[in-house]
Predict the structure.
Amino acid sequence: MTDANTRPSAPNSLYTTEQRARRDASVWTRVQGVLAPVQFVVFLVSLVLVIRYLATGDGYAIATASVVLKTGALYLIMITGAIWEKVVFGQYLFAPAFFWEDVFSFGVIALHTLYIYGLLSGAIAPQSLMLIALAAYAAYVVNAGQFLWKLRIARLQSEVPA
């Protein structure tokens, strides 16, 4: 016998009824809702600064600061996102509904972390660091698209009568 609270609210639904209730009640859902657009704005500003540096050679310090800020925002949203996943799905990462988004997130984090390593160690030249930042940002855009797609699916599924 299947309990109505553990049964998906619709076939192929991202959330069971119980998970949806936990998602909607969690402060971490609101935290993610604030951090995601903040991170995106930081990304856009940083992208402009990185491209400006690569195109002109000017503004290395501000471009670097912006990438460090973007990386900090990414780490923060990853940590709070893992907490959100624990609250909603009962595990910190790789819940089936967000498995591939989490996998790709680790690639995004790896690229951002490579940038930070190269910056702090001095092992990577400034031009190369900025190219790594661009690669990290390209991966971030793909990953953000994955999450936006899931958000859209969740909204469409919440409009379907149970």
Notes: The first helix runs from residue 17 to 25. DSSP finds five helices and no strands in the chain.
